[in-house]
Amino acid sequence: RVRLQVQSVDKPLYRGTYHCFQSIVRQESMLGLYKGIGSPMMGLTFINAIVFGVQGNAMRMLGADTPLHQFLAGAAAGLIQCVICCPMELAKTRMQMQGTGEKCASRKMYRNSLDCLIRIHRKEGVRGINRGMVTTVIRETPGFGVYFLTYDTLSRALGCDSDDGYIIPKLLLAGGMSGMASWISTYPVDVIKSRLQADGVGGANRYDGIVDCVRQSWRREGWRTFTRGLTSTLLRAFPVNATTFATVTLFLMYMREDADSMKDCEAMRPSLQHSSL
């Protein structure tokens, strides 16, 4: 996705998603497909914990379970997790851009994702590792609002009840579609974020900021530039979010049933003690 988003329109390396996949495997081996995987592996566990924790607590604070509250709770979760998401995606972007088209990069700037963040911090400070924070917030806040709103709407429409024999495929469908809806709703912002975070890799900075990046991208490449990499993003978004939402929902259902059974046992104790007397 990142390579399709940031490649030059004058000399594009890839014609599309499949050609990009094919070229990376041919030029950089299968390992090229896993560049930058370190930072998501380190950060996604914390991000999911923050997102679902904040969203659940926000819903309890807001009270009534309405579509608006689902959106607001999701937006709050998306906003807070940006603290981890932005540096994580910066490291991932830099690692993925490193050694493009080379099986063995002649000069690696970064050994791994952690080394990438350390070097950026040494050179540019805290501001450097938070490059793209504004665009990340603009993308994640409404994006997660749409994410949870869509999932809630679809799961209700599909009738995802705990005693439903088809609950797992229904949850997978609702989760996958919510992930795709979330990405589609804010994808143009993601393109700008990727370009800003990749800016300066292997040369001088091209963009002065968000507005300049939008202006240059539009002038040189037209509106299609804001949909670059969308196909690969959606192909990934469906299975990832289907699995995530189904797992979390089933786990919460199990925990609620377990808690209810414990309450029933506690309620029975006094009557049992009374009968023994």
UniProtKB/TrEMBL annotation:
Per-repeat ranges for Solcar: 1-61, 65-157, 169-254
One Pfam family this sequence matches: Mito_carr
One GO CC term, this protein: mitochondrial inner membrane
Residue ranges crossing the lipid bilayer per the database entry: 32-51, 71-91, 234-254
Localization terms from the record: Mitochondrion inner membrane
Keywords assigned: Amino-acid transport, Membrane, Mitochondrion, Mitochondrion inner membrane, Repeat, Transmembrane, Transmembrane helix, Transport
Domain of life assignment: Eukaryota
Membrane-protein topology: Multi-pass membrane protein
Transmembrane helix keyword on record: yes
GO biological process: mitochondrial L-ornithine transmembrane transport
Reactions accelerated catalytically: L-homoarginine(in) + L-arginine(out) = L-homoarginine(out) + L-arginine(in); L-lysine(in) = L-lysine(out); L-histidine(out) = L-histidine(in); L-histidine(out) + L-arginine(in) = L-histidine(in) + L-arginine(out)
InterPro entries attached to this UniProt entry: MCP, MCP_dom_sf, MCP_transmembrane, Mitochondrial_Carrier
GO MF assignments: high-affinity L-arginine transmembrane transporter activity
Family: Belongs to the mitochondrial carrier (TC 2.A.29) family.
UniProt cross-references to PANTHER family, sorted A to Z: MITOCHONDRIAL BASIC AMINO ACIDS TRANSPORTER, MITOCHONDRIAL BASIC AMINO ACIDS TRANSPORTER-RELATED
Protein name in the entry: Mitochondrial basic amino acids transporter
